[in-house]
């Protein structure tokens, strides 16, 4: 396994000191086994109805992340949380990467685009899964980004430029501004600059198809953005509504099911503002618990759809029954 650099990098943005730890710190990219050992990646999808809308969760792959990526959580709580989830605290946490496809008549909306070739050899399987679903990239009408980290945005571009030739690309205005700011990028050490370069490449590849939004924006078709900042400056969730049915796609606001529900103040080392991220997470979890709204996560155990229950001053993740809710 390849373990990336564990240094923290500090960036300065818009005249203010912003702690921006290196995205790769502590990440462990598992090497793909030899072709003879296992079959090629098999498309993995799960489709759930939401009123007359269907939401298909697509597995883009996974990455492994080390214990020192988890912040604001002591060793005892870390170990207890993983053991309660029947995971080995001595091993990196295997984290799935999921993309969501929303079907509403002729409109096909992707929420994020996976890692493409930008996030190690165990992500980038979105294209194969879309093919298995009978969907071509040209059929995607819009893409809504939760944020621009490479495991979410890498699949937007390939060697020939934009992967999705006909899709509008919706990005939070603060998110796009941060990652495409030349002054911020130039102040970054060399080994983090590729992440800024990816965001600039995405912006340039999609050109006038890039549409920015702020806060809570109604994108039509029952899709409304939600401001969930902290993980990144413009990190956003999506509220999906169809009649009385609702679901919130929470992106990375809660990414570690074994830890961040039991300990909502626990963050990850690449949160741009760990305190804000924790406040955002706790407020979000309180809201979906009180209103009994289903949630879907990018990094929660596949297919990552479930509910949240209160447990004292913390929470519990309750996955939905896969077959009971399957379309």
Give a description of the structure.
The relative contact order is 0.16. The strands form 5 sheets. Strands 1, 4, 5, 6, 8, 9, 10, 13 and 14 form a 9-stranded mixed sheet that branches. Strands 15-16-17-18-20-21-22 form a 7-stranded mixed sheet. The model is unreliable at 1-36 (pLDDT under 50). Helix content is 20%, strand content 32%. With 327 residues, the protein is α+β, with helices and mostly antiparallel strands. It has 7 helices and 22 strands.
Features:
327 residues, alpha+beta, nine-stranded mixed β-sheet, seven-stranded mixed β-sheet, 7 helices, 22 strands, globular, disordered N terminus
Question: How would you summarize the topology of this molecule?
Answer:
Layout: E1 2-3, E2 10-13, E3 16-19, E4 27-29, E5 45-50, E6 53-65, E7 70-71, H1 75-84, E8 93-104, E9 107-111, H2 126-132, E10 142-144, H3 150-153, E11 157-158, E12 161-162, E13 168-172, H4 173-180, H5 182-187, H6 193-206, E14 210-213, E15 218-220, E16 223-227, E17 236-242, E18 245-249, E19 267-268, H7 274-291, E20 294-296, E21 305-311, E22 314-319
Parallel strand pairs: 9-10, 10-13, 13-14, 18-20
Antiparallel strand pairs: 1-4, 2-3, 4-6, 5-6, 6-8, 7-19, 8-9, 11-12, 15-16, 16-17, 17-18, 20-21, 21-22
Order of helices and strands: EEEEEEEHEEHEHEEEHHHEEEEEEHEEE
State Rg. Answer: 19 Å
How many strands appear in the DSSP assignment? Answer: 22
What is the tally of helical segments? 7
Q: Sketch the major β-sheet.
A: 9 strands, mixed
Tell me the overall shape. Answer: globular
- The computed structural class is alpha+beta
Q: What proportion of the residues is helical, as a percent range?
A: 10-25%
Low-confidence stretches: 1-36
Mean pLDDT: 87
- Proportion of residues in β-strands: 25-35%
